[in-house]
Amino acid sequence: MCTVCMEVLKFPVQFESCGHRCCANCLPELLRTSAQCPIDGIPIDRNRQVCLR
Fold first, then answer.
1. Contact 28, 11 (CB under 8 A)
2. Helix and strand numbers, DSSP H then E, in the chain
3. Which pTM was predicted?
């Protein structure tokens, strides 16, 4: 489940800092608004994400 839109993950991206995931389409908005994981508040580095397939 996406930590941003709370729907089934579409093109999942994993936050390297904490391991939580979001949809690739949700990531840009998340980085613009807070740049923190919505689950645990750990800062998200826009250059350190892992794309899962």
1. no
2. 1, 3
3. 0.82
